[in-house]
Amino acid sequence: MAESSSQIDNMENVFAGGDCVTGPATAIRAIAAGKVAAANIDEQLGFHHEIRTDVQIPAPHLDVCPARGRVNTKEREAAQRKCDFEDIECGMTHEEACAESGRCLRCDHFGYGIFKGREDRTMVSLIINGKPVCVPEGTSILDAAARAANIDIPTLCYLKDLNEIGACRICMVEVEGQDTLVAACDNEVHEGMVVHTNSQKVRMTRRVNLQLLLSQHEVNCVKCTRSGNCKLQKLANDYNLLGAPYQKKLRPAPVDYSAPILRFENRCVKCMRCVQVCDKVQGVHIWDLVGTGSRTTVGTAKADSLSQSLCTYCGQCVTHCPVGALEERDDTDHVYRMLADPTLTTVVQVAPAVRAAWTEYFALSSGQAAPGVLASALRELGFDYVFDTNFSADLTIMEEGSEFIERFTHRDAYSWPMFTSCCPGWVRFVKGQFPQFAKNLSTAKSPQQMFGAVAKSYFAEKIGVAPKNLRVISVMPCTSKKAEAALPTMKDACGDPDVDVVITTRELVRMLRCSMIDPAALEESSFDSPLGTGTGAAVIFGATGGVMDAALRSAYYLVTGENPDPDAFTAVRGMQGWKEASFDIPGAGTVPHGGGQWTRQHQGAHGGDCLRPRAV
Prior knowledge:
Layout: H1 25-44, H2 78-81, H3 94-101, H4 112-116, E1 123-128, E2 131-136, H5 141-148, E3 172-175, E4 182-183, E5 194-196, H6 200-215, H7 231-238, E6 261-263, H8 273-282, E7 287-290, E8 297-300, H9 316-320, E9 326-328, H10 332-340, E10 345-350, H11 354-357, H12 359-362, H13 371-381, E11 385-388, H14 390-409, E12 418-419, H15 424-433, H16 447-463, E13 470-476, H17 480-485, E14 501-504, H18 505-514, H19 536-539, H20 546-560, E15 578-582, E16 588-592, H21 595-601, E17 610-611
Helix pairs in contact: 14-16, 14-20
């Protein structure tokens, strides 16, 4: 046996190395040290990501895998070795390799045990589709199948950690010993369970459940914006549902086109995902089940329609809807009419987040996804001037930075703390859910509205065009921008809106597809000047906490006349829901992230100086 010095016990001057001394422990310690280093770097950068122990080490089955020593490899005979330079040892046979690989380290002492503290969890053994697996107690059948057996169980309503209620009944599986099928997403595994995820009974049940859903679904895919990217459509194709055995039961349901988010009731599958994300993430509680019996559906809980509710139009319900029951209002026809009118001059502004998001549909490489390609694509559509919203983001930072200093140095004259007002969803949230804090909002317009105001005044004068003949179109990542542009307070002196039309990234993609524009074939071009330039402060608007960081940096410069250290305000960045930090100049900052975070923690904001949730 080797000692800590690697000398062999009772054998002077004989040392051992490699596996003989340390085995795989060295590699595992190195991995653990790397994780610790990564966590320290993560903390230093202000991200504070949670590191999870996603790797599950199976429990040993001594009855089927008895304890064994190492496989003793055989050496070649000396008479054979002297004739060549091949390896001295013979390789393992297939059986020997299987036996050696069975000698795994179950103990987590050198891995996440060092990193997070050892976590003792009871392991559960079960069989899924004939495969023996071992997972921690409390794991759902759905997760056990995916993680331990690499088996995909179809779902429609499932949303991890938010919506695990088995409402769609598509994830049904068969468990031996039970007469009825069970939903895999909300049933936990237990010792000795035998699960079948693709038996004849399971397949037929899923087909029937899908057919029942389709009997109450408006199957007109060519009119739906989710066609080709719809979970229900994919499941229907996967299960070869060519006919409609059940009678359709659809009822007339008018659509409220006055709101930027549209709901088509006859497309809803009652999955509850919109309800859960609105309640648990955004904390606005707009959607809920309404009606009784066969008339049960999803609707606005405390208003007759979405436009009359306190909805912030954040768009999270649209993002999480698995079908086309919720979608943004399509305003592309208004844009086409403006582009076709020779008497109008069209100006388009592009938000920073759109410059990256629009490439997803076209699967462009990082080299092809340059902002200049987007500028060229917009010119191909027919826009006269193409600008970057970064310009007005810089204006916003200067306005809010100056206002922050004014309020900070005259606290007695203003309501405190001060909230930034860049996000219209956040502004609607405060005014709707906590109207007592409306006076704490900054008076500065959002970058979108500042751009519209500047374009229809300064820029219109520079190019010699009457403001009434100038049309400003915004390409934004947020549906709430549509509602903001329609506000009666966002108009010029003549009563015309500062921003005429707002389209989302998905609407822009549809316009490019309709115009047969292939971005991969376009050359880069620059944004127009002078409203097409911006600083680094504007670019970081797209990061969580970036607006706060930029505002504090601007305030620091306005007070001291010097630029702060680049990392001076990184404490306000990151993905945590609630962040607090204090700075010597000009003051302190408290930044909540997400409407739900503000709802749960707003009482702690009274001692802070500057708040803002994440723009969604």
